[in-house]
């Protein structure tokens, strides 16, 4: 029998739910960071090996920043002292500004005539910081220190010189045998999109792709939090949350959060059923970033009442994708045929795909490849689950497809 809570405990439980399910922010507590064990082990191995560094890359929303947040907590506890520093790159960032931020977080105590006081390393530099300066400063750490510098959102940089200087720094640190690790993190399909194609650093960098989460990893994200909250869940509801998330952990957080809040509000029950997940879809759509709603509206706007823009876009959200989120036009045929209740060919929606890459429609899709071999993906990965859930709330996705979302077979529903 499902557990329930007293009326007086509802506010407390809602607070706990909002604390554990965090769709808007990266995970910061190691015990709650689920999945990604393979990437974690490779990060640990990289940090442990002197002179080795890492490049972590993947789509937006797959959990790269969350992984970096828990790095200090996953290093095996020994006598060494972890010196962790994460800085975020912005479009106007330069090599100097990035490592100036790093140096501000590196402190030392000195007496320059006014008694012993604490200073940060950035105060010792009056000119532009260079790779040689970084190598020199990291050379001051002892063997009992583990300095780790994370350069996050590296893809945001617009200065073409900075990636070259970072690559030079990585090589110099490696050649010097310095006990420091630089981890470059960003949105990319491959390493060369993040770091200048610097062949000499390939031997000293661990290249770690971060694909979308597997179903098992998403289940781990969900189950860890439900267990801590004391919730149980029926299999159909559990599968629906994971299938809707499309490999993006933020949507497991969002759907899990609103489903739990609905269960507590509607019956003070610590038990999730499919109806709670259905209610969560409405809650998540209503609370979604306004920019998602604006992109969806621009992408599907038409003066023709019988247009199929929403139907084709929803079919794109249902299409099977590869590890990088790309799908081929042929993958749309089955879901669109199911949505329309009739067989369609690529020629029936080719113009729609072309429209979706038009800036006038906010370029909701990104196209890659050559003619006859094009592949597409949502420019913002988080738009894919949003479009799918919008299709459900708007009645575009039929009953059979919605039922399939609660089934382990859903990923093979549209098998093309």
Overview of this protein structure:
By secondary structure, the chain is of the alpha/beta class. It folds into 3 domains: 7-24 and 214-287, Helicase, Ruva Protein, domain 3, CATH 1.10.8; 36-209, P-loop containing nucleotide triphosphate hydrolases (Rossmann fold), CATH 3.40.50.300; 290-412, Arc Repressor Mutant, subunit A, CATH 1.10.10. Helix content is 44%, strand content 13%. It has helices spanning 10-20, 37-48, 64-69, 71-74, 95-104, 131-138, 161-175, 215-229, 235-245, 249-267, 274-287, 290-300, 309-318, 330-340, 350-356, 383-393, 399-404; strands spanning 53-58, 81-88, 107-111, 116-120, 145-152, 181-187, 205-209, 232-233, 271-272, 365-368, 375-378. A 5-stranded parallel sheet has the order 2-5-6-1-7, with helices on both faces. Helix 6 (131-138) packs parallel to helix 7 and helix 10 (249-267) packs across helix 11. It is globular. It starts with 9 loop residues before the first helix and ends in a 12-residue tail after the last helix.
